[in-house]
Design brief:
Rna Polymerase Sigma Factor, Chain: A, 0% strand, mainly alpha, Arc Repressor Mutant, subunit A, single chain, 10 helices
Length: 189
């Protein structure tokens, strides 16, 4: 079977071929889940966000603009859903309670358990504001371009670059403050 590109699968889905949407889910599920997990740092919430994002994308499939990449469109949805969840969560938790919870939460992905620096980066990342966390996750964990990040976050490319610069500096400062790295030891780019 010939593998279809995303716009073709979207068109087929809109024409009633339900298996086409299954192919889109299979293709993008892992990446969408990883973004959700890095944003909310909770396995179950990330699963729920991922499922909800794919449901919402299906419901809004006719709004997809084939001039953009499908993964950028769906990443935008999952990032927005994660940001909304974080905002709702903050209404019900104090900052100290949230920090205690995150410090006690078990690390989900095996690769982060194997590397102390990776755990430290993840912990420092959770101390960033959600706007800064989003640009770091999308740029450094998902390797998206400035243009794609701008589309996902609905920001001009210049603002993405500026926010990323500020986020990197803030992440570096948090890592130094927490003693994860010495000031001269590590540059975050």
């Amino acid at each position: 079977m010939i593998e279809q590109d995303d716009p073709t699968l979207v068109r087929q889905c809109l024409e009633g071929q339900r298996d086409a949407y299954g192919a889109l889910i299979a293709r993008h599920h892992k990446a969408v889940f990883n973004v959700a997990l890095r944003m909310v740092k909770d396995y179950q919430e990330a699963q729920d966000l991922t499922q909800g994002t794919f449901v919402k994308a299906y419901e809004r499939l006719e709004t997809f603009d084939a001039r953009h990449k499908f993964f950028s469109w769906i990443y935008r949805m999952v990032v927005n859903e994660a940001l909304n969840l974080i905002k709702r969560r903050r209404r019900f938790e104090g900052l100290d309670e949230r920090a205690d919870y995150l410090a006690q939460a078990p690390t989900i992905e095996q690769e982060y358990e194997e590397s102390e620096m990776s755990r430290n980066v993840q912990n420092a990342l959770m101390n960033l504001g959600i706007d800064h966390r989003a640009v770091i996750v999308l740029k450094h964990f998902e390797n998206l371009s400035y243009e794609e990040i701008g589309y996902i976050l609905d920001l001009p490319e210049k603002t993405v670059k500026s926010r990323l610069f500020t986020a990197r500096q803030a992440l570096k400062d948090i890592m130094i403050k927490k003693g994860y790295v010495k000031h001269e030891q590590r540059q975050i780019h």
